[in-house]
Design a protein that fits this description.
elongated; alpha/beta; 358 residues; 11 helices; 14 strands; 5-stranded parallel sheet
């Protein structure tokens, strides 16, 4: 069995030891080195050639972001950020994902054995996914391209241009799910969406301290208004609703129209929010007026829900393998026949908007 070789970069000796013990406790993973700072990490990368790097956000001297920025320009490789789940750190971690980190995980809590066991499982999953991820290099400091052009497939055009306008009262509603690699994929998708778009409801697997920062970040970049859903908001055109990290998000019909609904029910596919929960509600409440989109992500969350959407008459789209960071969720949806159209990320917004009546 070929093991995934991991280099740990963290200024805390305790954290380096804890992460090493967890990773070495998994049969298909091994820690080949540990560095307390960026300078040491740089030398160890040259000599050890690891498959995956775990990287702390806050380090003495050169911090994690600056090191990551340089790494992705000079020697792109899979990186999993390890950071505390705080409001301040969430902004930094989102920036790290923008710079090219594959995924992130919080610092482990040492207050319960069960918590540590679950953490070790999640860490191992993220490292495995990172090993197989498509890592995008950065040719210049402010590049935001999600996938190098050479890795993109040539999209099959269905029309010459995306419509400049559309009928905001068309009744269509877009439902989107993503996981690993999804923060940047969602950003790229929304950058291609006009201000007068149909309502868009999004589930991205993230902790609750991150979703509000993610929504604010998108709101400052995209033409539609982007908010973190609070529950019971009226679903309106020109607005994007991000599921909060602590609750499932659904859509519900009331006498006054369609509204968002939050649920603290048990996780589905080990996730809350779950894409399947959102897609199931779309199939039940909106039916053929729904448009489903599934983007890059690890696992299978959203596949069955998208199948039920398609069976209910919805139009469904899946991101293709070549443009995914991790071709997990879209692959599962495609294999069971849930995806009607598969396309590259840089063509997704145009294809989706073309499905909305003008």
């Amino acid at each position: 069995m070929t093991k995934t070789r991991v280099l740990i970069v963290d200024d805390s000796a305790l954290m380096r030891g804890l992460l090493s013990a967890m990773i070495n406790g998994v049969a298909d993973l091994e820690v080949v080195g540990a560095a307390p700072d960026a300078q040491t990490a740089r030398e160890l990368i040259k000599t050890l050639n690891p498959d995956v790097l775990t990287l702390d956000v806050h380090m003495p001297g050169m911090d994690g972001l600056e090191f990551l920025d340089r790494l992705m320009r000079l020697r792109p490789m899979p990186v999993v950020m390890v950071s505390s789940y705080t409001n301040a750190t969430s902004e930094t971690t989102l920036k790290a994902l923008e710079l090219g980190a594959v995924d992130f995980i919080g610092k482990p809590r040492t207050d319960a054995a069960q918590t540590m066991e679950l953490y070790a499982e999640e860490l191992a999953e993220k490292i495995r996914a990172a090993r197989t991820a498509r890592v995008r290099g950065r040719s210049f400091p402010h590049s935001t391209s999600s996938v190098p052009p050479a890795q993109r497939t040539v999209p099959v055009s269905t029309s010459s241009h995306a419509p400049a306008g559309m009928a905001s009262g068309s009744g269509k509603i877009i439902f989107l799910g993503a996981s690993t690699g999804g923060t940047e994929a969602i950003k790229e998708f929304l950058l291609g969406i006009p201000a007068n778009c149909p309502p868009i409801l999004i589930v991205q697997h993230m902790p609750e301290t991150f979703t509000s920062s993610f929504a604010r970040r998108l709101d400052g970049l995209c033409a539609p208004r982007v908010i973190e859903a609070q529950g019971n908001e009226r679903v309106e055109a020109g607005t994007v609703y991000i599921a909060p990290g602590h609750s499932h998000m659904l859509i519900r019909r009331t006498g006054a129209g369609l509204v968002t609904e939050l649920s603290a029910a048990e996780p589905v596919n080990r996730h809350r929010p779950s894409v399947d929960v959102l897609f199931d509600s779309a199939a039940q409440v909106v039916g053929r007026q729904a448009i489903g989109v599934i983007l890059t992500g690890m696992g299978k969350d959203g596949a069955q829900g998208m199948l039920r959407m398609r069976q209910a008459g919805a139009k469904t789209f899946g991101q293709d393998e070549a443009s995914c960071v991790v071709y997990g969720m879209p692959r599962e949806a495609f294999l069971i026949g849930a995806v009607e159209e598969q396309c590259a990320l840089d063509d997704m917004a145009r294809r989706v908007i073309a499905a909305v009546p003008r």
